């Protein structure tokens, strides 16, 4: 096939005809000098730039099949309209052909044939991994990849593959993908992880200098900053779950109406909004349209959608984060993913802060316990000596008695001051479970007298009972205990008296009898080893007013000690409320009381 010589031939330029296949198939009027023979139709493309080419002749045996022609036509259309960019480059990286999408990304109105590929995309930054992907493909014959970053903050991934045809081996087929959204997502994830690490990243000097409230305020400000500036959330509410009560307590509110921020919510799927549902289930929730969501309770008047995720530490729900927007369908899967990741970081930050508080509280408590333990027994010795001396001066020198009473008060104040300092330095939220439960509140401020010759028992009494707020004083023997009770006034009267059944001067039962002469009701507890009660003292004590549960068998556990003390305290309250005082102990062996004790027992204990 060729163009008509009468209409197209330029008399000053010789005409040429490309022939694909056997030239003998050409028409008779075509001269041999006018024919350019090529082997395949692919080679025609390289010759068509010559302006003297008048036409192309294809021998019948070289004609492609109809299906091939259709495929060639469709391939051209597909390449032109592909959603990714495609270009053909020469060895100088000039664009020989580009499809519509690549031209669109270049910001040009027409094909950039002859333009350098990088110039077509405004000389983007090459981010690797291969910083010379086109030269690598040309030099090695292998495919190469790289990422480009344009000045308008778009990211493209380029894939260069050399042409496999020998004639076109110095050309490259380049495909270009827009990965801007993917890169931005990765950058955002990296920023979120970095922000999460910085939430509770406190230097040792900061930990030392900052109080608990200051650390909490810093954490809240960091959370607000990152949620607003990094995730672009402006209406924020964070609540923490009280594990014991199920209450969801406000921690942080930004852009939330005050009434909504003060609203009482619990972790329950019904009647507590989406926040209560998420806290109860531990499952995130996207509300696309608040008008059609029965769970939604608005935090601001113009809210139209919300996103709520749980604060999870391993499998435990610590609280919730609620985000709201004035737009319908404002939150999608990526928002959910980002907030869930950041919520885990917040949960770990809260846990780290709690551990720091607990560690500081533990250190403070240990310091106070060490100081208190060092002075507790010496102060008890001062108390014992003071009441002993005071007993001798009563009726003889009122001035000395008054001085001794001041010594008693000051000595007791020393211990109480140390104890109170320890309590102030130990935040309530850092006290171990059981240390400040409602079950033990009744122990706080109660005065306990412990009578035992064993110093270790007296030390343990201070350590075990004072951790619950009890005021503990000790005595070595019965006579000291009697003087301690006799020297007490209304403000220092003992709520519970714990005595060993075997004292250096007489038995615990005899002590109970003596105290019965000083007190309307003796709140007594007797300690004994298993099987040790040669004089049936416990039986006699119970017959004379000892509470049925007022016995401790050595060695006893802390919970047993606390239960017995609490039982006596509860019975004390019943006595005060009812006004019915139990009968005083009656000493059936009274004549024997003046006799000296022998081997820790007395005639009063012998049946």
From TrEMBL:
<feature type="region of interest" description="Disordered">
    <location>
        <begin position="578"/>
        <end position="607"/>
    </location>
</feature>
<dbReference type="InterPro" id="IPR013656">
    <property type="entry name" value="PAS_4"/>
</dbReference>
<keyword id="KW-0418">Kinase</keyword>
<protein>
    <submittedName>
        <fullName>Signal transduction response regulator, receiver region domain protein</fullName>
    </submittedName>
</protein>
<dbReference type="Pfam" id="PF13185">
    <property type="entry name" value="GAF_2"/>
</dbReference>
<dbReference type="InterPro" id="IPR011006">
    <property type="entry name" value="CheY-like_superfamily"/>
</dbReference>
<dbReference type="InterPro" id="IPR003018">
    <property type="entry name" value="GAF"/>
</dbReference>
<feature type="modified residue" description="4-aspartylphosphate">
    <location>
        <position position="500"/>
    </location>
</feature>
<dbReference type="InterPro" id="IPR050595">
    <property type="entry name" value="Bact_response_regulator"/>
</dbReference>
<keyword id="KW-0597">Phosphoprotein</keyword>
<dbReference type="InterPro" id="IPR001789">
    <property type="entry name" value="Sig_transdc_resp-reg_receiver"/>
</dbReference>
<dbReference type="InterPro" id="IPR029016">
    <property type="entry name" value="GAF-like_dom_sf"/>
</dbReference>
<dbReference type="GO" id="GO:0016301">
    <property type="term" value="F:kinase activity"/>
</dbReference>
<keyword id="KW-0808">Transferase</keyword>
<dbReference type="GO" id="GO:0000160">
    <property type="term" value="P:phosphorelay signal transduction system"/>
</dbReference>
<feature type="domain" description="Response regulatory">
    <location>
        <begin position="447"/>
        <end position="569"/>
    </location>
</feature>
<dbReference type="InterPro" id="IPR035965">
    <property type="entry name" value="PAS-like_dom_sf"/>
</dbReference>
<dbReference type="Pfam" id="PF08448">
    <property type="entry name" value="PAS_4"/>
</dbReference>
<dbReference type="Pfam" id="PF00072">
    <property type="entry name" value="Response_reg"/>
</dbReference>
């Amino acid at each position: 096939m060729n163009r008509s010589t009468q209409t197209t031939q330029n008399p000053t330029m010789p005409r040429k005809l490309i022939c694909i296949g056997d030239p003998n198939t050409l028409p008779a009027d075509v001269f041999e000098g006018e024919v350019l023979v090529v082997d395949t139709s692919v080679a025609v493309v390289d010759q068509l730039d010559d302006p003297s080419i008048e036409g192309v002749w294809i021998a019948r045996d070289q004609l492609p099949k109809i299906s091939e022609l259709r495929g060639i036509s469709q391939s051209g259309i597909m390449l032109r309209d592909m959603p990714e960019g495609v270009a053909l480059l020469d060895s100088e990286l000039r664009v020989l052909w580009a499809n519509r999408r690549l031209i669109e990304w270049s910001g040009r109105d027409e094909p950039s044939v002859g333009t350098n590929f990088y110039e077509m995309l405004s000389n983007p930054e090459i981010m690797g991994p291969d910083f010379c992907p086109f030269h690598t493909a040309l030099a090695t014959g292998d495919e190469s990849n790289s990422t480009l970053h344009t000045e308008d903050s778009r990211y493209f991934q380029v894939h260069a593959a050399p042409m496999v045809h020998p004639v076109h081996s110095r050309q490259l087929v380049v495909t270009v993908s827009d990965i801007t959204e993917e890169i931005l997502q990765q950058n955002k994830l990296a920023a979120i992880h970095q922000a999460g690490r910085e939430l509770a990243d406190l230097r040792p000097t900061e930990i030392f200098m900052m109080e608990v409230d200051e650390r909490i305020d810093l954490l809240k400000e960091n959370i607000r900053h990152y949620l607003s500036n990094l995730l672009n959330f402006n209406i924020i509410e964070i609540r923490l779950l009280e594990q014991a009560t199920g209450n969801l307590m406000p921690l942080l509110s930004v852009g939330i109406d005050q009434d909504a921020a003060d609203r009482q919510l619990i972790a329950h799927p019904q009647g507590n909004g989406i926040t209560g549902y998420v806290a109860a289930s531990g499952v995130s929730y996207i509300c696309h349209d608040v008008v059609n969501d029965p769970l939604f309770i608005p935090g601001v008047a113009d809210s139209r959608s919300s996103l709520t995720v749980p604060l999870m530490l391993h499998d435990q729900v610590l609280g919730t984060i609620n985000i709201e927007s004035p737009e319908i369908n404002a939150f999608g899967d990526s928002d959910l993913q980002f907030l869930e990741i950041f919520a885990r970081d917040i949960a770990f930050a809260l846990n780290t802060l709690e551990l720091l508080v607990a560690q500081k509280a533990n250190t403070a408590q240990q310091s106070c316990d060490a100081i208190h333990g060092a002075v507790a027994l010496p102060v008890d010795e001062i108390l014992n000596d003071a009441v002993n001396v005071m007993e001798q001066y009563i009726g003889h020198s009122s001035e000395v008695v008054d001085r001794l009473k001041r010594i008693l008060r000051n000595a007791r104040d020393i211990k109480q001051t140390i104890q109170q300092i320890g309590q102030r330095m130990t935040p309530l939220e850092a006290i171990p479970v059981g240390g400040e439960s409602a079950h033990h509140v009744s122990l706080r401020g109660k005065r306990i007298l412990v009578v035992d010759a064993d110093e270790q028992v007296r030390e343990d009494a201070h350590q075990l009972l004072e951790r619950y707020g009890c005021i503990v004083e000790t005595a070595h023997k019965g006579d000291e205990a009697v003087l301690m009770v006799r020297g007490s006034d209304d403000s220092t009267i003992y709520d519970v008296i714990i005595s060993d059944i075997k004292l250096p001067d007489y038995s615990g039962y005899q002590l109970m009898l003596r105290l019965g002469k000083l007190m309307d009701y003796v709140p007594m507890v007797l300690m004994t080893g298993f099987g040790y009660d040669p004089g049936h003292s416990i039986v006699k004590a119970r017959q004379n007013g000892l509470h049925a549960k007022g016995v401790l068998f050595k060695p006893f556990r802390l919970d047993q000690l606390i239960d017995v003390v609490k039982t006596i305290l509860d019975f004390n309250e019943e006595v005060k409320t009812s006004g019915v005082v139990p009968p005083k102990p009656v000493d059936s062996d009274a004549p024997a009381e003046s006799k000296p004790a022998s081997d820790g027992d007395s005639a009063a204990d012998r049946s």
